[in-house]
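In the current project phase, work has continued on tokenised descriptions of protein folds. One protein thus recorded appears below exactly as we store it.

——
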Amino acid sequence: MTHHIRPIELLAPAKDITCGIEAINHGADAVYIGAPRFSARAAAPNSLHDISSLCDYAHRFGARIYVALNTILTDAELEDSRRLAWQLYDAGADALIVQDLGLTQLDLPPIPLHASTQMDNRTPAKVQFLQEAGFRQIVLARELSLEEIRRISAVATVPLEVFIHGALCVSFSGQCYLSQAIAGRSANRGSCAQFCRLPYTMTDADGRVILRDKHLLSLRDLCQASNLEPLLDAGVSSLKIEGRLKDVSYVKNVTAYYRQQLDQIFARRQEFVPASDGHCDYTFRADLRKSFNRGFTDFFLHGRQRDITAFDSPKSVGEPVGHVKEIRSNSIIVAGTTAFNNGDGLVFFTPRGEMQGFRINRVEGNRIFPAEMPRLAPRTPLFRNFDQAFERQLSKPSAERRIPVSISLTENNFGFTLTMEDASGARVMLARPLEKQLAKRDQLDTIRMQLAKLGNTSFSPGRIDISLSSPWFLPASFLADMRREAVERLLSVRKMRFRRELTPHKQLTNKPIYPETTLTYLGNVSNREARRFYTERGVRTIEPAFELQPRPGVPLMFTKHCLRYSLGWCPTYQHGKSPFREPYYIMYRDTRLRLTFDCRRCQMIISEEKEGKR
């Protein structure tokens, strides 16, 4: 039985060129990075020059660079965004990740467009519409189950991309207006103030406190490490790590971890192949718990789970390292097998559920001397969220990515010929003149060593064939020059052979009918071109985006996270009865939010409730 071979893309984040290059070195098949403007992480812009350099580096390995241009745009920004799209195309970018459909109406370069998760892509009908409208890759909503992904995959003719790791938005992406309504900072324009990570007090209709000062909208971090194969089998082709604001050690560690997991799957399943070239060697052991995390969840992939929230703290918990065995005047004895280092950061939770931390000053076996003694009790579990030794390892060069090449040396009438070829079929042949003289002793091993010296290049030696009629003398400098030139030429051949996917602009002029005829503020239509896009595709009523016209009292967030469920009072799953009277509210300082529950869609809806209105 022959399987259809499917390239699988590991897609890593980069806040800047340094992170981007390390993502490639540590095994990413593609990297996504913010544009100079109009990116959904306004805090992580990048210059055209850096994006161009990163494209050059990535293309050497057949890896791709996707640029996020994924905010909604105002009329005044359309021309700038069109010009920027051309500049990014000229810089070598392989695709633009976009949210605003108005962009498709402009005179764009022939660069593929990817539909950002901000477009709220969670139904087969929406995905079908976007691919017919000319999108070349579609980022699915994070909340989908495997079954929902399978249903979408059944209609998809373009690659589907899903998040496999990192921070979770509690709201459906692109459908959160909390930050805009309360702080005037729009998540759809890259400036989310992260109200979901704040502490709230939950009360009922009578003002009775249900929970006090808990991070009620804060989720754990996503981790699909144990679900990679099911995701591939469900039809996903691009696996995305979240983190365009994360530091370089996070990018190195998490990318390396998933690269190794995928390579193990590919070794068993020949129908999957990596979407780029090269093999990575690492100087460290990747461990997801050692990078920033709020504890892990696989979210809704296998249906509703209890463990998706991080009510106690939105900060990084790290890895469990044991518990307090004994407390002395200036030190703590830890029960567990972890080896600690001076400078490690440990955290624990107080009986009230508050996270507190301390730094280790000195270590003697399992006895640790904190810089300042914390107040904690015996048997308190400890977590390490900063591992000094691990971070030190990652602060140095920690991976090498190389493309294996086969090398052959033969002789010709006037000298010698060197051939170098990689697995993709890129090949160079150099013939160089040299007067033939017999060597005083057998030189084969020396020649082989010289040809294998590919040290700081992008290549590693595979098979080396030497076929000579006599034991000729070849000077080391002659071999070194040939090898250097072959490497340079092979790199430029690979560069020439790298094919950017081009999308003829006419694909974007297709006019499939949009699945709905009415768009409320949830359609995020903020400019005349987006309005024209929808009108031409059958939408009759279009409200302006919330950012253009804030509306009091409308829902500001739609989420599958449900506080009734968290508390055991879900009428559908738990049949638990609440002792409190609805409606429920959550309060942070003078912000008061009202909770409603749409059980038919299995969602919690959050709206702002002005003071005095009950």
